[in-house]
Structures are given as C-alpha cells and as structure tokens.
Amino acid sequence: MAVAFRPPKRDVLQALRSLVYPGVGGSGSTCCRCPLGAKRYLLTNSIVKLKEFQHKKVAIACNLPGTKDALEVLIEMKNQDVKFSKDTYVLAFAICYKLNSPESFKVCTTLREEALIKGDILSRRASCFAVALALNQNHVEKATSIFSQIMNPESILCINLSLMIHIQSNMSKTLIEILKDATEGNVSKFVKKLKFSEEVLAKVREKVKDVPALLATFDELYGKLHINGQVTAYTLDALLCHTPKGLKSHMVHLNKRTVSRRTFQPLSQSLWAE
C-alpha cells in the first residue's frame, strides 16, 4: 500500500530541473535531460569527488554563486536513483532555502514528503531549513507544521525560528511570554540559557511597537537578556548556515580514510556504502 501513495520521482526531478534550467523538460533519456554543454556528474567515475562534495553540503549551498551548481549535482543523483542520506537532505533543503522562490519551496516540500513516505530520517537541521524557507515564502502554517515535528527543539536555531513563527502569526503577547520565561526561568548558572538573535529581537520589537504596554515590557526584557548574555549578533541566516564543529572533524576523518568500513573495499569502488 505504501507504494501507491509514493509521489512519482519524475515530478521531483522535473521540479528540480526547472530551477536550474527553466524550460527544459523531463522526458527522454538521461543524456537528453541535460541541456547542451551541461557538465555531467557520472557517479561511476566520480564517486569519491561527489561524496566529498556532499560532505561540504551547507558550506556550498550557503554560497549563492555555487548554489545552482550544487543543485545540478542533486539532479544527477536523483537521475541515477542514488539514495539520499541525512546529509544530502540537508544539502537539498539548504539549496532550496537559498534559492528562496516558489519553485524551490515546492521542491523542498515534495522532497520532504517523499522522504517521510519512504521512512528516511530527516535531521533537525534539514527541518530547520525547511521551516525557514516556508517562513520566507509566507507559508506560516506549513512552517508551524514542520516545526512541530522537530524533536528536541531547544537549540539556539530552533528558539529563534520559533520566535519568527510567532512574529508572522501575529502572536505578540506570546512573544513577550517567551522572552519573559527566558529571562526568569534559568536561574542556575549550570543551566544553559536560551540565546536570541539581535536581528530576530529587532523584529519582535517591530511587532509590538504599536502596543505601549507590550513595548515597555519588551524593552525591559531586552535589557535583561543583554545583561544575562542571552543575545547573539548572529543573524538567523548565519545560524542556519553555521557548520557544526563535529561535522568538520568528521570531514577530516573522511579525507584520511581510503577503505570503506563496511565493505573493506577502496572508497573509489564503493557507491556510498556507508
């Protein structure tokens, strides 16, 4: 029964392809799908390079000039039925977030729904990119729905995305309550305090500025947050595109390995065995 509800891969490919090559259809052979002169990324010949590329994920996706090149690689991966890993979904959603268009939102939504139907695991970071894109495209209900499915949304990124959802949902009083809880709730120095982006707090102030009582309360809370060291200069975009230290060390470790841990074959002969 699961197969009957699975979205056709052609729809995903066609949507992805239209982002990079507007007007190019999705029919014909694999070779015919690429426009004239387009670079091919044959997995049979470039497995290691593609794997290294995949692990650079957000660093590439957050660099606007290279975003569409990254999307081209994703299209080739889908053409050749390469199973998307958790990291690949992060890359795909990050690209869609950076392109920030109705078409990229559709692609992100389709890929996410397909992943859930197949039972693929979507990381918190991938979901955060999906939430941010939905907010940028003014799909607040969709952003709220995706955010509600994030496990352990206590990270600095999730906290600020939650504020953005409340801002765009016009929930001014709830915004003040969230900030009040953040300043009064964590009294122990051993408990990690919530941190808020200066950029997001500025948007909160803009939202409550027309209500004198809320504005006065916000200004008071804002001062407390600064005193407590709970305000960061990082923008929401910077928080989204930040590469965790753990991933960097993993990339170094990957570059040192030449043999697959699972198949004990050279990595150049392994099609993403891990």
From TrEMBL:
<dbReference type="GO" id="GO:0050684">
    <property type="term" value="P:regulation of mRNA processing"/>
</dbReference>
<protein>
    <submittedName>
        <fullName>Pentatricopeptide repeat domain 2</fullName>
    </submittedName>
</protein>
<dbReference type="GO" id="GO:0003723">
    <property type="term" value="F:RNA binding"/>
</dbReference>
<dbReference type="InterPro" id="IPR034629">
    <property type="entry name" value="PTCD2"/>
</dbReference>
<dbReference type="GO" id="GO:0005739">
    <property type="term" value="C:mitochondrion"/>
</dbReference>
<dbReference type="GO" id="GO:0007005">
    <property type="term" value="P:mitochondrion organization"/>
</dbReference>
